[in-house]
Amino acid sequence: MANFAFMSGTGNDFLVGTYEGPVSEIQIIALVSDAEYEVDGVIFVEPINEEIVKMYYFNNDGSSAELCVNGVRCVAKYSIDNSFVDSNIFTVNAPVGDIKVVVDSDNVEIEAPIPMFDNNEIILNELVGIESTVGNPHLMIEVKDVDNTDLESLNNEIIESDKFPNGVNIEIYELINSNYIKARVYERGVGETDACGSGALCLFNYLNKTQKLDNNSFVMYPGGDLNLRFENDKLFLSGEVIYL
């Protein structure tokens, strides 16, 4: 990996470097095990032209993922800081398609894909889950106390239920008021992480469209807050990106 950096997108930590060619799952696991910091994933960035970069993303267990929103935001800042593009508004080619990004110092905003959700509830003992997808799958579960919910046990229960044979990202959330949600996430292939951009998209989209959350609201994760809003039927997500 060339020109590597440790970066954090609202608490999601990554090892980011310049793409030099295909890598194996074993190589990714080796990079993670040798890393200075605990990372949620490894990202390679390939400059395509002055307006487009391509993103290669791997979970910390070596598996690939369809979308990592906070990873896209780290790619955006990394690309600006390494002069891969000639404007602060450009495109990141991610596995789910092209994503427009805007970099303003440490704040990075993306024009995000709009998730889909299924109104049919999934009952898990006394909890109710809603499925949503934004390239990768999420199960959103409202709880009374986000901080004191045993998320790992809940994840194990869901995996053992065989309802999701390909795995799923578990989002637990608590509505604070009409502009703030508190959330935690257990990501497949990673474990519990400090934030999840794609999960924030799913939560905001579902709760806004079911009139439980106002537009221009925040999802509060242990790693920090993400701002989300609809504007002219487009969905935007923004938050801080820093170097570790």
Overview of this structure, please?
Helices cover 19% and strands 46% of the residues. It is of the alpha+beta class and 244 residues long. The protein folds into two domains: 2-112, Diaminopimelate Epimerase, Chain A, domain 1 (Roll), CATH 3.10.310.10; 116-223, Diaminopimelate Epimerase, Chain A, domain 1 (Roll).
Number of strands: 17
Low-pLDDT parts are: none
The rough form would be described as: globular
- Average pLDDT reading: 93
Query: Into how many domains do the coordinates divide?
Result: 2
User: Would you tell me which CATH topology of the largest domain applies?
Assistant: Diaminopimelate Epimerase, Chain A, domain 1
Total of helices? 4
H/E series, N to C?
Answer: EEHEEHEEEEEEEHEEEHEEE
In terms of DSSP E residues, the strand content is over 45%
User: What's the main sheet like?
Assistant: 8 strands, mixed, barrel
Please name the CATH architecture of the largest domain.
Answer: Roll
Helix content: 10-25%
Structural class: alpha+beta
CATH class of the largest domain: Alpha Beta
What is this structure, in a nutshell?
The protein is of the alpha+beta class and 244 residues long. The protein has helices at residues 25-34, 69-81, 151-160, 197-209; strands at residues 2-9, 12-18, 41-49, 52-59, 89-94, 97-104, 107-112, 116-117, 122-124, 127-133, 137-142, 169-177, 180-187, 191-193, 217-221, 224-231, 234-243.
Considering the chains and any ligands shown, give keywords for the structure.
244 residues, alpha+beta, Diaminopimelate Epimerase, Chain A, domain 1, 2 domains, eight-stranded mixed β-barrel, 4 helices, 19% helix, globular
